Amino acid sequence: xxxxxxxxxxxxxxxxxxxxxxxxxxxxxERAKEQDRINQAATEAKTNxxxxxxxxxxxxxNIPARDYFRLVKNYGAETVTSKDFLKYWNKxxxxxSPNKA
Length: 101
Description:
By secondary structure, the chain is mostly helical. It has one domain. 60% of the residues lie in helices and 4% in strands. The chain has helices spanning 12-47, 65-75, 77-80, 83-92, and strands spanning 52-53, 57-58. The chain is elongated. It starts with 11 loop residues before the first helix and ends in a 9-residue tail after the last helix.
């Protein structure tokens, strides 16, 4: 068994460069994943066109889960489910609105 007595030392510049590189790649990955979530919600919205659920009624908006929870956290559930917000959502992302509100 070998015990490492000294850890490798890195300069502050190397640490800062690695940190900046990690942040930049993280933002790129987040944008790519956001587009994937929107595409998934759009395909789900296409399947809901013209359909009516017996209890819930017509689907007027598909919101990706992460976006929905962020909106509820910032604005509250009442605002996100309000008629005015759904009209805004229909205008902003028409591909995620299978049946207009």
